[in-house]
Amino acid sequence: MTMTKGRGGGPGAGLSRVSGALLAMSRHLEVRDVLKTIVVSARELLDAEYAALGVSDDHGGFAQFVVDGVSDEQWKAIGPLPRQHGILAAMLKDATPQRLADVRRDVRFEGWPSAHPEMSDFLGLPIADGDEVLGAVFLANKRCPKPEGGCGFTAEDEELLAILAQHAAIALTNARLYERSRELTIAGERARLAHELHDAVSQKLFSLRLTAQAATALVDRDPGRAKDELQQIALLAAEATDELRSAVVELRPAALDEDGLVATLRTQVQVLDRAHTAQVTFACHGVRALPAAQEGAVLRVAQEALHNALRHAHARQVDVTLTRHGQGARLRVTDDGRGFDPSAVRRAGRHLGLVSMRDRAGGVGGALTVESAPGKGTVIEMEVPGG
C-alpha cells in the first residue's frame, strides 16, 4: 500500500504513528484512551484538520464521541453530541465508506450548529465487528492542494483509515468482553455471598427462635433464667445485624475502575467502621497505581481479612495499612481478635479463606503471610510486585 506524506514526514513517520495507536491497545489503556489515540494518529497521519470517532448507542445517538482538532472552547460552544443523521447515518446504517469532495454539497448533508467548524472534503468509515456496526471514524479538511472539484483524501488514505478503524473495533470489542467478564465475576461473588448470608443468618435466626421459646417457657417458673435467655436473644439479634451489614457492604460493587484501589479501600473501611462496634482504620503511604489484576487481588484479600476479623475473630480493633513496596505495594491487616493456630492449616485455611487469599496473591505474582496465635490476634500481609 502506498502511504501518503503527513506533517511528520514520510512513510516512516506514518508507520510510527500507526504503531503508537496499536501499542496503546497492548498496554491495556482505558478504551476511551485507545480511541483518542486512534483519532489523533489518524488526523496527524493523513494530515487533516479535524478527526472524530463516534461509538453508537441504542437510541440514535452516540455513547462516546472523541474529537481531535477542536478546542475545548469550540467543543463546548457546539453543544450536544450529534445524532445519527445525514452522512453519519449513511456510514452507520449502510456500513459504507464515504469519501466526498465537499460534504456540504452532498444531498444527505443536514447542516451543523453555528459554532461547528467549516468542513469541506471528508473521509469517513464505519467501525464494524463482523456484521455489527459499532461506530464511525471520520476526517475532514485534508491539508493539501485539492484537484478542481475533487477530494484531497485519496484511496490510499481510505485504506490506512480502514486499518485504524479495524483496530478501533478490536478495542471496543475487547472492552465489551471485559465488561461481560466483570459482570459474570460480580454475579459469581454475589452468589457466593448470598450463600454465606443464607447460612450465617439462618443459623442466627434459628437460635433466636429456640431461645425465645425457652424464655417464654421460663417466664412464670424461673424469671431469673428467663432474663438470661432474653439477654442471649439481644446478643444473637446484634450478631445477626452485623452479619447483614457486612453482607450488604460486600455486595456493593467495588469502584476500582472509577476510584482506584486506595479510594475504594478507604471507603469500604469507613463503611465497616460505621457498621460495626469494632474500630476499623485505614492508612496509606506512597502507593502508586498498580496493574488492574493486582489492585483487584489486593482489594479482595483485604475484604476477606476484614470479614475474618469482624465476623469470626470478634476483634475490637482492626487496622488496614497499604504502603509502597519497591515498584509494588504491601497490604497489612492487623486485628486484636481471638486468633488461631496457623499450624492447623487445613482447618483454619478452609474456615478463614486463607487458601483463596493465597491463591489470589499467587495469581498476580504476589505472596501472602499470616501470623496468629490463640488469643493474640492476627496479622495478614500481602505483597504484590507492581508493574
Task: Tell me the radius of gyration.
Answer: 30 Å
Number of helices: 10
Main sheet attributes: strand count, strand direction, barrel closure = 5 strands, antiparallel
The count of strands amounts to 10
Fraction of residues in helix? 40-55%
Structure description:
- Helix 6 runs antiparallel to helix 7 and helix 7 (256-275) runs parallel beside helix 8.
- This protein starts with 10 loop residues before the first helix and ends with a strand.
- 51% of the residues lie in helices and 19% in strands.
- It is elongated and about 105 Å long.
- The protein contains 10 helices and 10 strands.
- The strands form 2 sheets. A 5-stranded antiparallel beta sheet has the order 2-1-5-4-3, with helices on both faces. The protein has a 5-stranded mixed beta sheet with strand order 6-7-8-10-9.
- The chain is of the alpha+beta class and 387 residues long.
- The longest helix is centred in the middle third of the chain and has 64 residues, at 155-218.
- The protein has helices at residues 11-26, 31-45, 72-78, 86-94, 155-218, 223-251, 256-275, 292-312, 345-352, 354-363; strands spanning 48-56, 62-68, 98-100, 122-129, 132-142, 279-285, 317-325, 328-335, 367-372, 378-384.
